[in-house]
Amino acid sequence: AQKITQTQPGMFVQEKEAVTLDCTYDTSDPSYGLFWYKQPSSGEMIFLIYQGSYDQQNATEGRYSLNFQKARKSANLVISASQLGDSAMYFCASNYGGSQGNLIFGKGTKLSVKP
Amino acid sequence: EAQVTQNPRYLITVTGKKLTVTCSQNMNHEYMSWYRQDPGLGLRQIYYSMNVEVTDKGDVPEGYKVSRKEKRNFPLILESPSPNQTSLYFCASSLYAGLRTGELFFGEGSRLTVL
User: Fold this and answer.
1) Do B40 and A53 touch (CB under 8 A)?
2) Which of A44, A78, B53, B81 is 20 to 30 A from A65 via CA?
3) Over chain B (115 residues), what is each successive 10-residue block's mean pLDDT?
């Protein structure tokens, strides 16, 4: 069964610094998607970034980038120039070609940005 | 405004009393799905639907039913709720089929308590 592991329950980062949130996945399917979401303390879920397994380049969306290392099965989220508003829970998720609608989530990392 | 609307947002009910959580999206999305979020467990997928009249089980479907009679609506039905279904529920939709189904618009969540 597919599995997503986020090993950092909580992290702190200084405002304006970059931070990397770890995510590893476990699938034998060659075709899969990787996703990151943000959940602020207000509770809503916000999609941040997508990486496909066949994408040659790392995905970027503004201050977010996904450090995709296929051989290591890792899909780390990098947030550059952290802002106070980045304090939130962050979830990594994946689906795979055999069941594209079935999305598996990690348990999340709580990021706290210090002023 | 593009949105996914869930109702009710908050509900306290008793064991065995059937309830339905409605979900409606106004973006003409093909894909819709339901998740539950419990502390320390991240999000877990309950059911998903790739299109009208097509539904599939996620990872925790026991005790839930869904239907997709129209593209915009995807209600979650708890036929006989039990206390272990106390949770925060999210409905979500995606413009994409295929691997990008995880690029999701989420509803605001429905907090359900079963006594």
Assistant:
1) no
2) A44
3) 96 96 97 96 95 94 97 97 98 92 95 97
Q: How far apart are CA A47 and CA A26, in angstroms?
A: 21
Q: Rounded to a whole number, what is the distance in Å from the CA of B9 to chain A's nearest CA?
A: 12
How would residue A61 be classed by pLDDT, with cut points 50, 70 and 90?
Answer: very high
Residue A107: strand, helix, or coil: coil
Locate tokens 């380049």: which residue?
A57
User: Three-class SS of residue A85?
Assistant: helix
Total Cβ atoms within 10 A of residue B82: 11
Distance from CA of B74 to the nearest CA of A (A): 15
Rounded Cα distance between A47 and A64, Å, is 11
All residues of chain A having their beta carbon less than 8 Å from the beta carbon of residue B54 are none
Q: Provide the CA A19 distance to its chain's centre, in angstroms.
A: 12
Measured between beta carbons, which residues in chain B are less than 8 angstroms from residue A43?
Answer: 88, 108-109
